[in-house]
């Protein structure tokens, strides 16, 4: 989210671094301290029937390659905006009871902005008129647990919301949005209810709380709205960034590992909360110290190219990134203290901006890779009072890029108070009169309409092959729910298993990485729940030595590989399951202990940077793993037995 001009986005961060060198309307809540602490309102608040527009899409949403699709397989482009407020608006200085201490003088009272100024039905009608179909709806963990009712003045235009807690108001808003046909993406924006995004106690998902508590709150929210039809996504955390002492990271396995935390929360949401939801994972927003000569910058989604997420549902992952003109690839957005001499995005030419956007985010939309996923630019924006020519040019450039690339997007913010926040798409004065992007005098309107009306992919999207990485860097990577249901199949080992519907097609010699796919066939696995854990060579037939001198863990006839176990580097087990029809072919050996053993132009991408890898062809399946126990040799996977698909 943007900071007011008087308080640049990361100025507080830089200074700190330098100083240190109602009722849930349609769902049943999870029995957590959050639900116990929130009294349930007796009456459900519904949008008037005439506020609901015909819905031309069907939930739930999923992904096909770089596209999001609805339940019919039709493209659903997230054309969205952020309806903020429930994440908090206090800036952290001055009295929280004084509107002057809140962003742009707007005290949100921890509920979506504007409910004091316009009836909910009017707000929704205006949202439709703006052309959006998706609402990113921020919330804070603190808001979830609050038990005090919002003041009547905060919902003056919606008297039926009086007496409700912030969470119950949030319930009413979620329900009304869904009934009106909007796709709703829940967004954990902050831990504490205050405006972000400097050093403010909200730098990471576990700032001021444990990762377990954060994941518990996500399960609570997912369950709370599990039966609200158009709640379609869980946006896990906003703008993960550095605090005073340390950077977040992507895959180091420590307490600041955003890659691991996101994977944990996603797993729990999909298995304990609501399996329908898209999981939105934002890249890392900022690392390093914003001082000339010291390392600093915005990794964004670049780390996903070498370490991507594999969820228990392989078609639920969406990656996300934020872009504002006053920030830059290595610019925090600060002015004064914390400002460096790096270029801001608004300093870049149209071509330079496109290159940076590709490198930092849209690279993950590249087809046929383990990291392939839709990219949602879930925040970008600019003020209607902006006069800087460079900033105005940037807005035209980024909306042009989003239009040309048929990208998913969400403007920040959607609602604001007239005379307070000129960034808002729609502003309301204290009488409920609307102004903003729909007015002829708003200079942003031309670029906005060009973006909203640009041609793009519509209708049915062809199924795309799934490619997903398995990583045992710091623990198990068992992404198959069917395998999990069978229990621990190799106690004491680090285990990996492909998501249901996919098969193992590649392995690395070192590093414990694997590659899964469904290419070349539909789900190959039989309905049979049986699985075979192979820990010796008894399945290798006489005369069938396909890796002479090496230990071979081979699947029984009629079965194929979906997983593996490792103790240290050494292979400890192969996991095989029966095929729905008997796989064919004698097979061939693919070696990769001394060099790369992948096909030329191998799909899936480099799933194990820095290690040699082996991979079966897309017309094959893996039926065995070979390795050596010779002294002086690496005991990791050395060869795959690849057989032709049935």
TrEMBL record:
<feature type="region of interest" description="Disordered">
    <location>
        <begin position="89"/>
        <end position="109"/>
    </location>
</feature>
<keyword id="KW-0326">Glycosidase</keyword>
<comment type="similarity">
    <text>Belongs to the glycosyl hydrolase 5 (cellulase A) family.</text>
</comment>
<feature type="compositionally biased region" description="Basic and acidic residues">
    <location>
        <begin position="100"/>
        <end position="109"/>
    </location>
</feature>
<dbReference type="InterPro" id="IPR018087">
    <property type="entry name" value="Glyco_hydro_5_CS"/>
</dbReference>
<dbReference type="Pfam" id="PF00150">
    <property type="entry name" value="Cellulase"/>
</dbReference>
<protein>
    <submittedName>
        <fullName>Glycoside hydrolase</fullName>
    </submittedName>
</protein>
<feature type="domain" description="Glycoside hydrolase family 5">
    <location>
        <begin position="119"/>
        <end position="413"/>
    </location>
</feature>
<dbReference type="InterPro" id="IPR017853">
    <property type="entry name" value="GH"/>
</dbReference>
<keyword id="KW-0378">Hydrolase</keyword>
<keyword id="KW-0732">Signal</keyword>
<feature type="signal peptide">
    <location>
        <begin position="1"/>
        <end position="27"/>
    </location>
</feature>
<dbReference type="GO" id="GO:0004553">
    <property type="term" value="F:hydrolase activity, hydrolyzing O-glycosyl compounds"/>
</dbReference>
<dbReference type="InterPro" id="IPR001547">
    <property type="entry name" value="Glyco_hydro_5"/>
</dbReference>
<dbReference type="GO" id="GO:0000272">
    <property type="term" value="P:polysaccharide catabolic process"/>
</dbReference>
